[in-house]
Amino acid sequence: MTLLYSYLFVMNIIAFLFYAEDKRFAYYSRWRIPEAVLLGTAVLGGAYGAGAAMWLFRHKTRHTAFLWTVPIAFFAWLVLFIILYISL
User: Fold this and answer.
1) pLDDT tens digit at each of 88 positions of the chain
2) Which residue range is the domain that position 16 belongs to?
């Protein structure tokens, strides 16, 4: 279980930093992080960090794919986490 905690912590930090950097890149009209990478980090465990960055930086909040995928990924990880916790 400790490995799962560590994995989720790192993925959320990575997702948060990716969204923050992409917002900075957008502001300065520079090369952007692909949307597939941003969504991928959310699906692979960084949904909380992605959601927090979306809210904090007001980034990708008008894109339907992000408005659906990030919360669904968060709740999927939450359900998985609860199932694993109950089964222990």
Assistant:
1) 789 999 999 999 999 999 999 999 999 999 999 999 999 999 999 999 999 999 999 999 999 999 999 999 999 999 999 999 899 7
2) 2-87
DSSP codes of every residue in the chain? -HHHHHHHHHHHHHHHHHHHHHHHHHHTT-----HHHHHHHIIIIIHHHHHHHHHHHT-STT-HHHHHHHHHHHHHHHHHHHHHHHH-
**Looking at the 3D structure of the chain, how many domains does it have?**
1
How many whole angstroms separate alpha carbon 46 and alpha carbon 17? 10
pTM: 0.93
Distance separating alpha carbons of residues 17 and 3, to the nearest angstrom: 21
